[in-house]
Amino acid sequence: METRRLPADQAGIIKAAQALKAGQVVGVPTETVYGLGADALNPRAVAAIFEAKGRPADNPLIVHVLGKAQAQALAALTPLAISLMDAFWPGPLTLVAPRLPVVPDIVTAGLPTVALRAPSHPAMRALLLESGLAIAAPSANRSGAPSPTAPEHVLADLSGLIPLVLDGGPCEVGLESTVVDATGALPLVLRPGAVTPEMIAAVAGDCLVAPSAMRPLKEGEAALSPGLRHRHYAPKAPLTLVKGPPDRVAAHIRRLCAQEEGACVLVLEERLPAYQGLSTFSLGQDLGQAAHRLFALLRQADEAGCKRILAEALPEEGLGLALMNRLARAADFDIQSV
């Protein structure tokens, strides 16, 4: 199969909508990462997502909708869900709510809930409108690999496996959406993202963070959100996170680099002087830049032939919580404290 790369203009959106309505899967741009989209109410089309990605079937998918009205046709929305929709949609917030029978089991991994999001990317919104569909769309990469934040990343992973990719340019956010369980009275963050717990608490009065956001799932524990059960976001090179006071972290990373040929270091711009003489990748000047760059840098490290990636831990608050969630899972929780 030849994979076409189409501009996300009106003609491209019409072709992508036609493909979706015909039961095909397509690469789609969102403000978070590129998604691999299919008609959410067509089980055979959704099955093609899992096949193209090599994604385990026990990993639920996010369903993209235009807004509250379309969401109400798929889920029983709680007052909490509605208030969070009003505050953050369209945007990088996914809400987990009790599903209605119209949603196929394959979308939810058999769970009684469905994850819903209204994206803000204009091309994705135009595609939702043109197709008239709810679009199930996990990240458009091979399962476990760093998420794609540019059309080139989608083609690198899925060329020949899908008919087309809509080129909407680089993703603005660069990390997958925040996933919040909105089935109860208080919001529970299952996967951190750009909509932070602090932002959610400002709307809902409080916000909890699930323990599973920063640890592996236990044996038999259900994955209530995408991005929890299996190793995610991982480069080919093993990744190790190092926590502790900055001077001790730098000294430890330098020792590890001296022990391993082909090691590289991933840090914020202000920390680069501590690693002079080593192979380094800059996450940028702040956490926003780090979120935007992270997945692309993990791919660049592989392309550069890095044999091991060492990264400084980031503060687990605000956007730093989302970055540490992705880094910890990319490292398969290989975290060293010094």
Keywords:
single chain, 338 residues, alpha/beta, nine-stranded mixed beta sheet, five-stranded parallel beta sheet, 19% strand, globular
Summarize the structure in words:
- It is a single chain.
- Strand 2 and strand 3 (35-39) form a beta hairpin.
- The termini are far apart.
- The model has no long low-confidence stretch (mean pLDDT 94).
- The strands form 3 sheets. Strands 2-3-7-4-6-5-9-10-11 form a 9-stranded mixed β-sheet, with helices on both faces. A 5-stranded parallel β-sheet has the order 14-13-15-12-16, sandwiched between helices.
- The chain has helices at 10-21, 43-53, 68-72, 79-88, 105-108, 122-131, 151-158, 197-204, 246-259, 287-303, 319-330; strands spanning 4-7, 26-28, 35-39, 62-64, 93-98, 113-117, 135-136, 164-167, 178-181, 188-191, 208-209, 239-243, 263-267, 280-282, 308-312, 335-337.
- It is an alpha/beta fold and 338 residues long.
- The longest helix is centred in the last third of the chain and has 17 residues, at 287-303.
- The chain contains 11 helices and 16 strands.
- The protein is globular, with a radius of gyration of 20 Å.
- Helices cover 33% and strands 19% of the residues.
What summary fits the major beta sheet?
Answer: 9 strands, mixed
- Structural category: alpha/beta
Succession of helices and strands: EHEEHEHHEHEHEHEEEHEEHEEHEHE
User: First CA to last CA: what distance?
Assistant: 50 Å
Number of strands: 16
Portion in strands? 15-25%
Number of helices: 11
Q: Whole-number average pLDDT?
A: 94
Instruction: Kindly report the spatial arrangement of strands forming the biggest sheet.
Output: 2-3-7-4-6-5-9-10-11
C-alpha Rg, in Å? 20 Å
Described by its quaternary structure, the protein is single chain
Shape: globular
Q: Poorly predicted ranges (pLDDT <50, ≥5 residues)?
A: none
Helix content: 25-40%
